[in-house]
Please model this.
Amino acid sequence: MTKYILSFLTRLEARPHSFAGLLIICTFTGICRAMEEYLFFGERLTPAIGISMTIAYFHLAIALICILKLTTNMEWKRIQNAVYLGIFLGAVPPLIDVGISGFNAPIIYRYYVKTSLESFPWHFYAPDLGAPKGETIVVWISILFTGLYAFLKSKSWLRFVVTSVITYGLMLIHFALVPIMTIQLAGRPMYPNGISGVQRAVIPDLSLALLPFWYIFFSVLLFLALRPVLRKVMVRRMLHLMPYALVTVCGGQLTGGINTAVILAGVSVFLIAFAMGLQNDYFDARHGEHRRIIEKSDMDFFNIAAGGFILWMILLNQVTALPLLIFFGLGILYSYPIFRLKKFFPGALKVEGLAAVMAFVTGVMVFARESFRPQIFVVALLIFGGWSVLASWKDLKDIRRDTRLGYKNLYTFIMGFGASLSRAHRINSMLGLVCIMVPVVYATITAQYMAATVIFCAGFLPLLGLTFFPTIKTWFKYVLLSISAVLIECTLLLRIV
Model:
């Protein structure tokens, strides 16, 4: 029997790896589970509930892959194909419960939300708290099967025990710790009307709405643990990503001030920008522009995480999802071969400028329409123009490669009129510095002298100095640091009057 099981697992593991396949299976399981609860026991069903279950199962899959990678030291892509079986089990609890209790029985399914250790169901069985027999049986089967997989691959009972214990902890985190933490942070009960007996409080509130965000966030952290090279890529790209996050916070500050929602909007933009950066790196490598570091699975994972994040915001009727959706779509226009706007002038600059505007608008739209002022629209236009020019500075370091590959940018456009590279750089630098002077001039006109002085001395002057030394190694990193400094200074000191 063991021989046949091992043979089946080996064939399953050998199948091509695909995050799209994992997403399809999680979607099937999550939506089927939601429909079963609705049809069998009258639980509330909305598209948002089905999608939230999909996100929860996707997080469970990534977590199980990490656990088995840790305890078996196998390639995580092979493990993922075996984890498919465990995800399918997610649709089984309602089938078990309807077989035991019949249709329309007073069965409820909930997260654990009790903070008292005395009543905490460590064994996962608590019908009054939303964990009926079917849920309990499947949770324990999942724990034991995960441990059994580690044993079959290692022939070690110690690994079986360790894997089972860690998986047990994962289930506690997934079904109890994360919901409890969400309640504490939100300051509101998840099920405000109680969940005892047949009374069902089925209207999701703020706490329940936040859960998928947590699951996406933890999935990202776990995947970064699986792929250490991505952590290095994120650190290397930090300076490229931070301006987008900072301009988001700047938009919030100019509109209504900095609060938790504005900071979360900045974090959201940062993560989506990272997904867009992976798209760019992957397709650049495919076109032979640099050494391949990013795998397709890396790009696919972050595309799914970003897409799931935006989709959940749309289902929650969050208007900030709309500029984020455009922001993410611009990355596809910029990098994907079907469009590849980064090859063309002025397409590449306008995409980058519009992306900055969408990041800025994300911060603006955190606040109600009443907070919007016409001056903010003018600021958005200035960001569009200024970002388009300053973003072109990065092309200087790749000018020979871009010329060889036939890519068009502001440098090659100016050089097309007979200008040398050094002259093109002087012209481009002058345009960029004029953009940086705009907030300085505005602050001076509106008598914000401290803001004008700080932005000029700690923003404009460093950039001016850098334009004279474009051959310095990592020159553009210093440029990005200076641009980030300008954005921070504008956010903290500049006010629209």
The two ends are 77 Å apart (CA to CA). The chain is about 70% helix and 0% strand. Residues 2-205 form one domain. Residues 323 and 358 are 5 Å apart (CA to CA).
